[in-house]
Amino acid sequence: MIDHLPDRLDLYAMAEAGRVLRGRVKLAGLPRVLPLLLSEAGELDVVLEFGRDEDGTHTLCGSITGRLVMQCQRCLESMEYPLVSSFRLGLVFSQEAAGELPVCYEPLLVTREPTQIADVISEEVLLALPIVPMHDEEAECRALVNDYAPAADERENPFAVLAQLKQK
Questions:
Q1: Is 3 part of a structural domain of the chain?
Q2: Are 46 and 110 in contact (CB under 8 A)?
Q3: Chain segment 130-147, per-residue pLDDT in tens
Q4: N or C: which end of the chain has fewer CB within 10 A?
């Protein structure tokens, strides 16, 4: 595994050549992902496999793994989220070509110019993140939440006033 991936690549040429790249990407280098994290420390392990399938479709398949520090939306404490994402992208030059891709690929619109690898990785990380991050087990949050919630027998019955009126 190399220390880092190149900043820019001609994805179409890489698919023609059938290259495989492995490397690490610093979270600090993914500005679109940073607002969703509590810490920008750490790295993601990335594998990018370029090639062509039996139909001649130029593809980019890969995986991204790592650990992200996010805010649990149940208890508002920090939590570690284990990111494990795999993707299958079909490289296309137009929207029309995207519509003709086999269903096993998501379209990635490319140009003849080199593509920012961080943009591709950021997009896949954003798609893999939970909509509402929460601890895996409620027990981790429940201790915090239950400290503030009154017990069922301590709560006042909201219909007690109606019961009093009914007696009168």
A1: no
A2: no
A3: 999 988 766 567 545 555
A4: C
The token pair at 130 is 């939970």
Count of domains forming the chain: 1
Nearest to 70 by CA among 128, 116, 149, 118: 128
**The residue to which tokens 């110019």 are assigned:** 113
Please indicate whether residue 18 or residue 159 has the higher confidence score (pLDDT).
18
Torsion angle of C-alpha atoms 79, 86, 126, 1, degrees rounded to 10: 80
Q: Is residue 1 part of a domain?
A: no
Model confidence pTM above 0.70 = yes
**HEC string for the chain:** CCCCCCCEECHHHHHHHCCEEEEEEEHHHCCCCHHHCCCCCCEEEEEEEEEECCCCCEEEEEEEEEEEEEECCCCCCEEEEEEEEEEEEEEECCHHHHHCCCCCCEEEECCCCCEEHHHHHHHHHHHHCCCCCCCCCHHHHHHHHHHHCCCCCCCCCCCHHHHHHHHC
- Full domain range(s) for residue 126: 8-137+145-167
In a domain, 2, yes or no: no
The whole-angstrom separation of Cα 64 and Cα 81 is 13
Which residue carries 């939970």 as its tokens? 130
CA atoms within 13 A on the CB side of 20: 4
